[in-house]
């Protein structure tokens, strides 16, 4: 597995939060988030800020198990009626999280939920947690979502790793169904050379690698749009992407790929 490096992830937590804050500053906090139907933009902001603080507490305390929410300082943040305070809370939490991760270093031993018990896990996870919820905020606000190509590609890498881990545990019925030899899925970013992935289904699960090969179904389009489809932020039948081959297999993947 390749990644962007610990220092870059720490920087991106702050950068992506700043970009999220720029979306939220003029938005109605009570506006619904279509891609997270139970949330408003205010809920989304507090979710992201709370996740940052939870990860920061986990790393700072060198936790050996999941930290209860009530042990995370200021995890809920201010209410929607205080937009300036909510903005400052987001900024402060992202900076504190990045600072704690930098101080810890990537190899610091700490609890995680996927067995990669290093601070490096949390730096990467909080980067992409923020990226994808920034996409949610942009959709809700009706503005364009853009992200650096290397960050978008790494978000796809990370998501594939998470789904593979979920399947490997055997605990998630949905991801356990992502199997069946002789089928494959190709992701092809048309605007970024080398941003391609081949997901191959087998009797025991699925594997993936960066490759350009013919597959049962291909999802093609600009990298940012491929990313959003893959995270179910953009429908697969959007005119911003192209699906070639067995569209039902892509739907099969999207319906079953999960954290659970």
UniProtKB/TrEMBL annotation:
Residues 11-138 form the Mycothiol-dependent maleylpyruvate isomerase metal-binding domain. InterPro entries: DinB/YfiT-like (IPR034660), Maleyloyr_isom (IPR017517), MDMPI_C-term_domain (IPR010872), MDMPI_metal-binding (IPR024344). The keyword Magnesium does not apply. SUPFAM superfamilies: DinB/YfiT-like putative metalloenzymes. Coiled coil: none annotated. It holds the Pfam family MDMPI_N. Residues 150-251 form the MDMPI C-terminal domain. One of its GO terms (molecular function) is isomerase activity. Keywords: Isomerase. The keyword Iron does not apply. It comes from the Bacteria. This is Maleylpyruvate isomerase family mycothiol-dependent enzyme. It comes from Streptomyces flavidovirens. The lineage of its organism: Bacteria, Bacillati, Actinomycetota, Actinomycetes, Kitasatosporales.
